[in-house]
Amino acid sequence: MEANEKLDKIVEARMKLKRRFEEKMAQTPSVADGSDGQSKPRGSGPTNRHGMPTVPVGQTVTTKWPVLDLGYQPNIPLDKWQLNIDGEVNNPIRLKWQDFMDLPQVEDTSDFHCVTTWSRLNIPWVGVRFMDLAALVDPKETATHVMCYGYDGYATNVSLEEALKPDVLLVHTADGQPLPREHGGPVRMITPQLYAWKGSKWIKRIEFLPKNQFGFWEERGYSNTAYPWRNDRYS
Ligand SMILES: Nc1nc2c(c(=O)[nH]1)N[C@H]1C(S)=C(S)[C@@H](COP(=O)(O)O)O[C@H]1N2
Ligand SMILES: [Mo]
């Protein structure tokens, strides 16, 4: 395929996703709560860029960055790193390191809310938008969720109306440095509008799904939806 034709296809896929999920996205709690005069978002501090109080209910701000894992931190050299994106899509792909770095890179600063009640604010990240990866694989009309898998055996599910938000990234850089191994380097996902367990560290596969399915913590009693400003921690 010509490069132009390829780009056209990606733009088209992105427009299609936007049309399909725009309305659903606008109705998600981390955007909509409080705006309809109902369900006021809970928390404290000045409002963030989405109109939510900076510190969600029950959270304490820390300047340290605690490490949470399953007792195992995989070591993936860049020449061995691969990301598979497949499932309910028209164009499954496998990216190697250079393929990933050749995609549009965005810088963004966002907050990180862990369900164990600490929040780290204003982390500068560099990475690739989930939305751009989704446009590359062109999800089928039937896709509603993704399961994200880590090299450590972890898995977590995210609905597409959450995953496609512009601040959901697959990051390789944090605080101006390559993402440290203990925080999920070479690449992890971040979901600033949801509790941080929804972002898989050491990400190796994104599987598009035709229906919701639980990941590691969701099967063990964590919330399916994980909305920080609703104190939505456990199910
Ligand atoms: N692959 C993988 N991703 C993961 C986890 C994990 O154990 N394995 N822990 C999750 C949890 S519970 C949290 S709070 C954050 C912690 O990220 P951090 O260790 O960088 O603070 O990563 C999430 N992503
Ligand atoms: Mo967590």
Automatic annotation (TrEMBL):
It comes from the Bacteria. Residues 20-56 are annotated as: Disordered. Pfam families: Oxidored_molyb. Residues 74-217 form the Oxidoreductase molybdopterin-binding domain. This is Oxidoreductase molybdopterin binding protein. It comes from Fibrisoma limi BUZ 3.
